[in-house]
Amino acid sequence: MKLIQYIIGVALVVATLAGAIAASGTDFSDVCYTSTHISDGDITNDLRIVNSCAANSYIEWSELNLTILGNVTDGDVYIGLNWMFVDSSLRPDLDVPATLVFSGHSFAVEPEVLRNGILCSSCNLTYRGGRIEVDVPGFSNYSLQGRQDFTVYSDQEPELDKKVYQTVDLGDAYRSTDFACIVQVFGQNEQLEWVLVQTNPERAVQGKILGNPDMNQPESLGYFPTENGVANTYFRNHRINGYNDFELVVQCTSNSTKLVYEESISTRYIPAGRAVVSRGVWLTDGDNAFYAVFIVIGGIILLWVGGMVWKSVKP
After folding, report:
1. Terminal CA-to-CA distance of the chain, rounded, Å?
2. Is the domain of 251 the same as that of 126?
3. Are residues 162 and 278 in the same domain?
4. N or C terminus: fewer CB in 10 A for the chain?
5. ∠207-213-217 over CA atoms, to 5°?
């Protein structure tokens, strides 16, 4: 009796697997696309379409009726690293809730989800570093976009060597709120994983020429403070060895608000810059003006002393 029950159980398992393999519900000639599903009469359960050429990113539906329009074929579904598209005019049967999984996206922090180029308020995003899951209510053109909650102006030719200085402008809505900002640089390794290369400001107590150490400098505070919604920041461009392309992330937080700015930067070329309005901000801001004046006056004194010495020894 037990032997008969065992044989029946094995037969049911084999039949289920055979149904899942034989009735794929898809017919792709593109070798990048594959699929799996479970067939239950006219209903296709757990249909997952994978693009192996996009780091195995995929779309998954829990339940569909594909019997009217037949198998999903090339051109019905497109899956990329940062975007996914279903032609709902050709396949209205696919225009139902689904889950999008981006496995090879290019963002270091949680991005925004756009639907037809507009921020999707009805999408539910779960971020797990190298993997992003998005539950969507129906289909159209979905894409990911790095968050840019504020504006960053970069000085591409800074006065001081080995650092790129920036001005962060949080906008008029945050002029009266104090924020603490940090700058992070992420590089991508061979496994397409993001590696935190550096965090700025550098942690070091800034000394004064006269008096006690200056505890109000970003290096001493551990963050870049904002004033009237503006902060002066930097990242160290000489410590990104081994990475040609990286993600620049600026995060600013207050007691109740977190703002994020993310931008892709390549060291393969010299960027033209966006709006070079931050030039000189470090040499004219707060106590730094004292150092600028000291250096100028000191240089003049040294030139004068040198001239006097040269005159005294001139035959």
Report:
1. 123
2. no
3. yes
4. C
5. 80
